Amino acid sequence: RQALDRYSTPMTENPKLHIPQPTARPGETPDFSYIDLSAAGAVERPPVDSAVSDIEFLATDMVRVLDDEHEAKGPWAPDLDPETLLMALETMVLTRALDDRMLRVQRQGKISFYMQALGEEAVSVGQGLAFAEEDMMFPAYRNQGLYILRGTGLVDMMCQCLSNCRDMCKGRQMPIFYQNKEKNIFSISGNLTTQYPHAVGWAMGAAIKGESHVAASWIGDGSTAEADFHHALTFAAVYNAPVVLNVTNNQWAISTFQGFAGGEKRTFASRGPGYGIPGIRVDGNDLLAAYAVTQWAVERARSGGGPTLIELVSYRAGAHSTSDDPTRYRPKDEWKDFPLGDPIERLARHLVKRGHWSEPQHEALEVKMKDKVNRAWKEACSHGTMTDPPFLDPRLMFEDVFAEMPEHLERQRDKMLSLRGDDS
Fold it and tell me: Which of 28, 53, 204, 405 is deepest in the core (most CB within 10 A)?
């Protein structure tokens, strides 16, 4: 009977078992008091060749540049010219316009699946500015801003979501799992965190060849619980790989609060020093801070200092994907209370403060980017949709696997063609 009583006790009442809980559920008041903030400009910027043991504070403090008055403060404030900042702002606004359009066309049944980067645009764009064209990127599925920044066309991205005859992945990837070989961006992986070891391996290869190139990869907070995260950090630390490993802590892994991945105990950046790797925690909604921290890590890697783990504190403003309903597990308007604000709004206000931007200009930019996305969508649909031709050639499924197609695949291909009445 005592055993039955013990096992009938709810797990949440068992003092030996801790089950992480978010600070607010649907219908409750949002509470972000668990996020430790540092004042803008308050965190020291150490030399890039600093010993890991001397800079562990970077993993627990938060690097911030923009203050509440939208001024750039402190030693991390980067020397970016107004033209670059305006280009970054335009890229973020374009990313959001693309996301909005593609979400709506998915709801209309014109594409099968989509994932937004809403609220996380500064991660891809701010960090992307810090890398050279030759550096290799291994993104996650909210890095569409990185693709746009590196010159991937909107039409190409839309055609991939449509799986039409111009699909860059030839119908072999889920929608939004883009790639751009010419711009050194690896294909997105749906098996979470596999891109981390890939990035480390690529960086090790670059070092072996004596190149100065750097690799970078992104995952979410939930993915840090995957074994590949630890495998990647071990190899990166042991072999001093020139790689920048990024964790976008957007507070939610699908419907699971970041505490389930260990975020309640220590910061995700704190895992770096445990491997002998610098860990830096940064305001991920501050484009200037995201750029500055990444630039520091890139310089360290390129000069032989090895890897850096960066935690970018942000918030997933939208659903995890079009298959998700976030109102079932968190307050509906929680994003409005997120203490680090909207990354686009913050950069725009900074540029207004400096006299390089205005509200009418920003409104005009939003209209311009929406028009650009609408024109791109029309062109993408001209290359085929899920229901209208031109369709992908089904023979493509047999190609790009072997250097020379084996006999059994040739038989399968020929049988398919005969059943379709296509002998060409």
Answer: 204
